[in-house]
Structure to design on (590 residues):
């Protein structure tokens, strides 16, 4: 096994945001890479934010022990954000903004729950990794290390990670990642709907009908109360976007697949901004709030949008 | 306490009600209007008709038990203020005369001028509602679909606590009086209704420094509805909106959208 690296200084022409992949195998390798990253930060008097699962948190806390790192290392609670990767970017923006405002350089460690995520969640987690480069392109400098356990993460996920991390930690050395590829994100195809092809066409004045259709399907499958109410707000936002930005009308299909309810909206509009809905709106900002609210209220949101094929938005709600 | 209601017919109209009646076909209208008025004579109400009554109705609207107001036959200028004043005056007079209540049928197409805007409708109907809510009166405002633009009809339905007509034409939300400078908001305020909501709130804010919106009956408000509320407050700098009794969902959305800021003159209070 390769010894943990001593962090090399980033290349002279590094962007402000250093997004670094750390492929490792097994818990010990995770610890070696993570602890050396944290200890380097401490020596440089930098702040470290750690967003990993509770099991990794525990072993990392043990490895770091009680030392001055207590003041410099913050374990952030990603579980409180829920399972929707659409909420991670604003959370990182807030954590980084707070750390930067304290006047210290920042590093982060982020490991997503690849082994427990559903296929749809893994797809959105991969997209989240790609969006990080875009989000922090012009941000204050910070360094994010993304560990991937190659013994448990599926090959397609790892391949996607290699394409969207400009840097990597390999063989104990922090360096460029030759597999990094700039360009559009390659989405997974959405699974085909498994409803009986019943769709509702909606336009201006039909937001109530949209809510009625969602309510009918949700209550048939036991989804009621506050979680249904939140889904209805989200459905209203997406349908209203179709009316306002998506050609004036759209179609809604609802179905249950396994233990989730899926509401799919389609219209002819095109969402050009990949970061739409991923930043907390300002109080006097005009527009741009709908998809933000949707991301905050839903268990998972999948958006596929091209100028040629229009926009499909799926709102996924756990029934359990 | 007044509760919002949307029903198909005029049958349940009672004292304190202010109904937006989406007028049906002519024969149905004549039958329903006559039933509403004759119910009043049976129950000891004073009857007031604004507009022209049907000749077949055989109602006495000239004596002490009736009032006929035909704006088209008046020599003087007739406007919203005149109707609000007349209603207040006639309701008080009916009480003094020993009637149970003042029962009004207003043909709004006889009353409104050409080129009517949603803002004028909101201003008038909300002021009328404040009078009705505080007096022994019931008013049915008959809006014939052929006489008004769709946005005017849509606005009218949202500024009455009660609606009678086809379910498809029922408003998704209703704003109505809950006392002095205090208004109930009921139903769902979404992107479809946001322009009408903005108009209603903007009109209410014209005459008060602090507008109280009581929201026990508000089920849901989306981002467009909340933006309409904030923009309405911005139209009257220095004035404040207090949103009372909003449900947890509305509160959560409000905070998620970043409106719980001192820079926003709208405050959610218990």
């Amino acid at each position: 096994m390769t010894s943990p690296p001593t962090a090399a200084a980033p290349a002279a022409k590094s962007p402000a945001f250093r997004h670094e992949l750390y492929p490792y195998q097994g818990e010990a390798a995770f610890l070696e890479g993570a602890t050396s990253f944290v200890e380097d930060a401490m020596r440089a008097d930098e702040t470290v934010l750690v967003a990993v699962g509770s099991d990794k948190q525990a072993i990392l806390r043990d490895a770091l022990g009680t030392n001055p790192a207590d003041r410099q290392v913050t374990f952030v609670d990603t579980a409180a954000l829920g399972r929707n990767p659409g909420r991670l970017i604003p959370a990182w923006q807030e954590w980084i903004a707070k750390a930067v405002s304290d006047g210290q350089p920042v590093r982060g460690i982020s490991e997503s729950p690849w082994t427990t995520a559903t296929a749809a969640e893994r797809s959105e987690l991969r997209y989240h990794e790609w969006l990080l480069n875009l989000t922090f392109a012009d941000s204050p400098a910070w360094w994010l290390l993304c560990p991937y356990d190659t013994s448990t993460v599926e090959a397609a996920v790892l391949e996607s990670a290699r394409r969207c991390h400009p840097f990597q930690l390999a063989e104990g050395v922090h360096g460029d990642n030759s597999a990094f590829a700039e360009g559009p994100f390659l989405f997974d195809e959405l699974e085909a709907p498994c409803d009986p092809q019943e769709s509702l066409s909606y336009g201006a004045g039909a937001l109530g009908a949209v809510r009625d259709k969602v309510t009918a399907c949700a209550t048939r499958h036991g989804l009621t109360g506050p979680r249904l109410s939140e889904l209805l707000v989200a459905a209203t936002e997406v349908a209203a976007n179709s009316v306002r930005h998506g050609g004036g009308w759209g179609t809604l299909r609802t179905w249950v697949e396994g233990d989730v309810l899926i509401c799919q909206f389609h219209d002819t509009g095109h969402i050009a901004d990949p970061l739409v809905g991923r930043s907390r709106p300002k109080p006097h900002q005009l527009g741009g709030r709908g998809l933000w609210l949707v991301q905050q209220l839903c268990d998972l949101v999948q958006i596929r949008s091209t100028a040629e094929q229009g926009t499909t938005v799926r709102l996924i709600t756990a029934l359990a | 306490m007044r509760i919002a209601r949307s029903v198909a017919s005029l049958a349940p109209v009672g004292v304190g009600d202010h109904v937006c009646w989406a007028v049906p076909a002519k024969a149905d209208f004549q039958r329903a209007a006559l039933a509403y008025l004759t119910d009043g004579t049976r129950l000891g109400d004073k009857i007031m008709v604004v507009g022209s009554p049907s000749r077949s109705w055989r109602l006495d609207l000239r004596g002490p038990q009736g009032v006929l107001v035909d704006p088209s036959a008046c020599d003087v200028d007739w406007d919203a203020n005149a109707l609000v004043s007349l209603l207040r005056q006639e309701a008080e007079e009916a009480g003094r005369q020993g009637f149970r209540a003042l029962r009004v049928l207003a043909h709004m197409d006889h009353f409104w001028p050409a080129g009517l805007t949603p803002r004028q409708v909101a201003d008038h109907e909300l002021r009328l509602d404040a009078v009705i809510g505080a007096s022994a009166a019931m008013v049915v405002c008959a809006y014939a679909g052929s006489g008004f633009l769709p946005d005017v009809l849509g606005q009218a339905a949202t500024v009455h606590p009660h609606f009678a007509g086809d379910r498809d034409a029922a408003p998704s939300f209703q704003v109505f009086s809950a006392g002095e400078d205090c208004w109930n908001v009921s139903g769902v305020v979404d992107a479809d209704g946001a322009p009408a909501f903005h108009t209603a709130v903007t009109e209410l804010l014209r005459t008060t420094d602090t507008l109280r919106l009581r929201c026990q009956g508000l089920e849901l408000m989306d981002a467009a509805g909340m933006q309409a509320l904030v923009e309405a407050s911005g139209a009257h700098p220095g004035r404040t909106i207090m949103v009372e009794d909003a449900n947890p969902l509305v509160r959560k959305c409000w905070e998620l959208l970043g409106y719980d800021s001192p820079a926003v003159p709208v405050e959610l209070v218990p």
